[in-house]
């Protein structure tokens, strides 16, 4: 049996931009992506703590050390700059592996989205 479990989580980052005219996705500071074990193009769930919205898109790397969290395309309508988000990626794995799997959970500085 395979089950889906949390693989990566970036907990409580602030939206720094919303670009309706971009093709789509979420731009994430590449330092955050590395720390959370996310790769370019990976599907991520976005949970908006300010308005309750939940949506899915894919990650693209932003400049390292920038703290950038920008929702692009239609997803830009689901956030406002300053909203607090939780970003989650999931993985399928066998049940026995899932019992011992440790996800990459990171907690950046909530003011600037940088790792401390």
UniProtKB/TrEMBL annotation:
Gene3D superfamilies linked to this entry: 2.40.40.20
Annotated substrate binding sites: 57, 73-75
Keywords: Autocatalytic cleavage, Cytoplasm, Decarboxylase, Lyase, Pantothenate biosynthesis, Pyruvate, Schiff base, Zymogen
Species assigned in the record: Pelagihabitans pacificus
Subcellular location: Cytoplasm
Record-stated family: Belongs to the PanD family.
GO biological process terms held by the UniProt record: alanine biosynthetic process; pantothenate biosynthetic process
Post-translational modification: Is synthesized initially as an inactive proenzyme, which is activated by self-cleavage at a specific serine bond to produce a beta-subunit with a hydroxyl group at its C-terminus and an alpha-subunit with a pyruvoyl group at its N-terminus.
Chain's role: Catalyzes the pyruvoyl-dependent decarboxylation of aspartate to produce beta-alanine.
Active-site residues per Swiss-Prot or TrEMBL entry: 25, 58
First-level EC class: lyase
Cofactor(s) listed: pyruvate
GO cellular component: cytosol
UniProt protein name: Aspartate 1-decarboxylase
NCBIfam families: panD
Alphabetized GO MF terms: aspartate 1-decarboxylase activity
A UniProt-annotated Pfam family: Asp_decarbox
Oligomer status and interactors: Heterooctamer of four alpha and four beta subunits.
EC numbers, comma separated: 4.1.1.11
Pathway this chain belongs to: Cofactor biosynthesis; (R)-pantothenate biosynthesis; beta-alanine from L-aspartate: step 1/1
UniProt remark on cofactor binding: Binds 1 pyruvoyl group covalently per subunit.
């Amino acid at each position: 049996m395979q089950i889906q479990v949390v693989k990566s989580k970036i907990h409580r980052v602030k939206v720094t931009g919303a670009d309706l005219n971009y093709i789509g996705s979420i731009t994430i500071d590449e330092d955050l992506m590395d720390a959370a074990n996310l790769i370019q193009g990976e599907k991520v769930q976005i949970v908006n703590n300010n308005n309750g919205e939940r949506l899915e898109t894919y990650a693209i790397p932003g400049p390292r050390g920038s703290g950038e969290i920008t929702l692009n395309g239609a997803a830009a309508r689901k956030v406002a700059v300053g909203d607090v988000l939780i970003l989650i990626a999931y993985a399928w794995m066998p049940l026995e592996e899932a019992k011992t799997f440790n996800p990459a959970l990171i907690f950046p500085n909530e003011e600037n989205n940088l790792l401390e």
